Fold:
Amino acid sequence: MQNYKLQTPIGVKDYTYDLSKKKEQLTKKLKELFIKNGYHYTETPTFEFLDVFTENHQSLDLYKFTNRYGELVSLRSDMTRSIARLCSSELLDMPFLQKLCYNANIFRMPKEYLGKLHEFTQTGVELIGIDSVYADYEIVSLAIKALQLGLKNDYMLHISSSDFFNNLFSELNIDLDLQNLIFKAIEEKNMVVIKKVLKDAKIDDASLEMIILVIGSVGKLDLIDKIKQNVKTEKTLNSLQRLESLYKLLELSNLDGNVYFDFSLLSYGNYYTGIYFQGYSQNIGNVICEGGRYNNLLKQFNNDRPSVGFAIMINELLDKYEADLKINEVMIYSKNKENVIKYLNNNNGFMSLEESLEDSLKYAKTYKIKNVYDLDNDKLYDCEE
Structure:
């Protein structure tokens, strides 16, 4: 029988030394950003009843089990659903809108491993109880500031709209089955299939060209202007105008530089109902930020309130995040450890447990400790030299 004592399961990893420092610093800065913008830090249970996570896309990738009471429970696979449950129970009677932020480990079991983590960390915000372009702006602008904290200017944010697609397909009388075929082809980037499906649906040439333009282009306000020229109904036009208004608000804040409209973005089925966005960075293959408006989610918890939010994928950012890995505290050395203990009663620092000054200096350089103070000789060593 194989001995697993010294191994970790597929999909999980250890975080030590530099990696754990980077993770702690990044999540701390993001948490400070969110709290500074009026969001309240929230924690939910690591596992909850299975019912919390079994709607739509969540049912197949859960780590689920039965507790000793025979109840079906699952490790948290989606912080948004946990917060939706919280806002529909304990926080149901809270007045006004609710602004919540979190930092939590998420557990998902993908169909295939493909190098994906089964346990990963997300840090994000949820804004519950208001549906307006200003609420959308607050979330998108906060997502941009979060990306800037982790990546400076090395990011792109692509914005789409589920509401726009729903209105457009309704305008063109495309039924649900054909919509699903189109979405599948968009996900696979298969323009040949998209054109065939649209032609089979007897879509007129002008509308077909417009849809190809929509899903095949990435741009700024000029793209919205081109699409607006070809839409026919007020609902579809309103969806585009809301995106346009959102972008202009970002321009007011000088946050529009790395923002693009990209209607090839797809969300999880009907999860999102309005704006939907994803963040990327060069040489990072996976999405590093994801969010949008999900006005129907809380209805599943008997709470009909609009909501919008996003999450930062912490694990995806760690390789690029430039953290300060130095320990700025002073390590105090003395042959007589009791002298160090007395010294630390009135001074900052921590005790070296090494037996010699030489080993103390080697330890400090290995673990990026900035200074060592030799108490016996009243000498301060700079270990960065």
In short: The mean pLDDT is 89. The longest strand covers residues 98-107. Residues 186 and 364 are 54 Å apart (CA to CA). The two ends are 51 Å apart (CA to CA).
